[in-house]
């Protein structure tokens, strides 16, 4: 279990570094925020809360790279989707990669 968590974290960070390398302007903005908020201090639980833009970059990395391609849950009540009835207690799998790239929900889904 710990190995999986380490792998997922490493994958997320590699994608983040890739995206930052492709977008120098965003890389500069993250760097400036870190220098402004932390100076020469080490990152700790208290000051990491001040890195708002950096957190947003990490969140967008998850959306764009789709590190976790799907999620699942059990339908808690009867529902309907595009005219199809979904009975209570039905396992439902949600393809995150599809919805995270949908232009109806994201202005620039590929960016």
Number of β-strand runs = 4
Which regions contain 5 or more consecutive residues with pLDDT less than 50?
Answer: none
Q: Give the radius of gyration.
A: 18 Å
Shape: elongated
Number of helices: 4
Class computed from helices, strands and strand pairing: alpha+beta
N/C terminus separation: 32 Å
Fill in the keyword field for this structure:
single chain, 111 residues, alpha+beta, 2 domains, two-stranded antiparallel sheet, 14% strand, Cyt_P450_E_grp-I, CYP450_20A1-like
A few lines on this structure:
By secondary structure, the protein is of the alpha+beta class.
Tell me what you see in this structure.
This protein is of the alpha+beta class and 111 residues long. It folds into two domains: 1-67, no CATH class; 69-111, no CATH class. It is built from four helices and four strands. The chain has helices at residues 2-22, 24-38, 52-65, 96-99, and strands at 70-74, 79-81, 84-86, 91-95. The strands form two sheets. Strands 1-4 form a two-stranded antiparallel sheet. A two-stranded antiparallel ribbon has the order 2-3. A hairpin with a 2-residue loop joins strand 2 and strand 3. The two termini are 32 Å apart.
Task: Show the helix and strand layout.
Layout: H1 2-22, H2 24-38, H3 52-65, E1 70-74, E2 79-81, E3 84-86, E4 91-95, H4 96-99
Antiparallel strand pairs: 1-4, 2-3
Helix pairs in contact: 1-3, 2-3
InterPro entries: CYP450_20A1-like, Cyt_P450, Cyt_P450_E_grp-I, Cyt_P450_sf
Family: Belongs to the cytochrome P450 family.
Organism: Tegillarca granosa
């Amino acid at each position: 279990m710990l190995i999986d968590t380490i792998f997922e974290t490493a994958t997320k960070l590699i994608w983040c570094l890739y995206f930052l390398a492709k977008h120098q302007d965003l890389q500069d903005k993250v760097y400036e925020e870190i220098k402004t908020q932390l100076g020469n201090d080490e990152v700790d639980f208290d000051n990491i809360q001040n890195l708002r833009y950096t957190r947003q970059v990490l969140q967008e990395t998850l959306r764009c790279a789709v590190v976790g391609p799907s999620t699942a849950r059990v339908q808690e009540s009867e529902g309907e989707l595009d005219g199809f009835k979904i009975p209570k207690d039905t396992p439902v799998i949600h393809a995150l990669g599809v919805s995270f790239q949908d232009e109806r929900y994201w202005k620039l889904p590929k960016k």
